[in-house]
Amino acid sequence: MKIFQQALQLQQRRRGFHIITAEIVQAFPALAEIRTGMLQVFIQHTSASLTLNENADPTVRKDFEMFFNKTVPENDPEYLHDDEGSDDMPAHLKAALLGNSVMIPIRNGRLALGTWQGVYLCEHRNYGGARNLLLTAWGE
Fold first, then answer.
1. Can you tell me which residues the record assigns to a coiled coil (predicted)?
2. What's the total number of domains in the chain?
C-alpha cells in the first residue's frame, strides 16, 4: 500500500462553480504511482465546498449557482451569523449541503472519472480568498 498527501492552494475565484480537476492532477504527480486506489480531495474551509458533476457544458455550473442562490437566499433577517456580510451564513449553509470532500477512484495512475465528470470548487462567498485543499491518495 502506498499513501501520498499533497496540499494545494487554489487562487481566489469569483463566486460560482469552477472545474478544478486539471489543477488537482497537475499538483499531484504521485497519482501516477498508484495502479488501483482512491483519492480524497478535502477543502479546509467552511464557506466553500466540493462536488463532482458535469465538466463540459458551462451552463450547468451557472444553473448550480442559480439553484443554490434561490434555495439559500442572502439577507434573510432570521440569520444570526452575518459578521462578514450578507453572503456569510448562506455560504456556510451551501457548503454544508454540498460537503467538504470528494472521493475519486484511481485506475492505472489516473482519476477514474466518468466521461462528463469533473471536480467543482463551489465558491459561495463574493470574496472568499484563496482556498486550501488537502489531497490524499492511497492504493497499490
1. none
2. 1
